[in-house]
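This entry is passed on directly below:
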Amino acid sequence: MRRRKYTYTPSRWRGTHGRRRGGPWLVAVPVALVAGVVLLSVWLSGGGGDPGAEGACAEPGDCAVLPAAVTPAPTASRPLSDPGAPPPAITAQAYVVLEEPCGAVLHSLNPHQQRPPASLTKIVTALVTADRAALGDIVPVTVNGPELSADSDATVMGLEPGQRLSVRDLLYGLLLPSGNDAAIQLAEHISGSEPAFVALMNEKAAQLGLEDSHFTNPHGLHDAALYTSAYDIAMLGRELLHNPDLAAIVRTKTHQPDWDGPEVKNLNLLLGQYPGAIGVKTGFTDEAGKTMVAAAERDGRRIIVSVLNSQELYVDAPALLDWAFASAPPGCLSPTPAPAAASPSATPGGR
């Protein structure tokens, strides 16, 4: 992260060859010093850098707060309302805004454009795992997380050969710290190999009627043949939230696996900071840029947004959520009740 520096270099004292002692400039110097100190204090307290940017903090890394540019969203009890306001201009190259329970598209940009998803791939890994394994199954660990991280600069949960962890703990390691080691371990546990597991991932997308996606690994490290679309990945995030176990995992901020290692932390900075946030997953690679599927609930509505190749992830996703809650008319209308049957005496020709 490049930070600006504030410096102050006073003019050299010139004695009788410069300005007079006691002149107005002696007053200006301390004033300038005080102003410089105030500016520096303001910057250090939150005005510099981008603490919520995923490339710097979330994958890899961790940050405590969202960028100052994000205006706190309204609380669930007092939402802002601006019906008919236009959608916000954001930096993402593709995005989709969905509403539950019907999955209606409220707004989109390049919704079916095929783009690399980065670690959003792990949403599909989690779905296949939930379909094929019991959460209580114990998995003998064979993947070496530290070596994987050193070889590929991948995010890992920290698996080491010889450990024995439940599928549930591996899913936490997959979805919270975005562990590539957990993705590989789950794939090998379920299918015996990554290629066999990847076939199940593509089968899952096809079962859901998604036509813009093709997966080549369970973790999302860049591959030219690995792609999805903003629409497909939003629908896959929606499918994950339909699974109560997976939904509970992605809304958890920290989890302690049953091991002697540290707890794992969720890289999704919206949790606990954006009102009503319930998940889902973040991602980043140089090729994909910053990616996210975000979901929130407010006033009886659930909105899901997908954002691909964003420059300001934690500005773009909240802006789309705010707009949907405040300005987008409901996309999932309740079925119109059937009219009550007329009594025989009221119908034409009735007796």
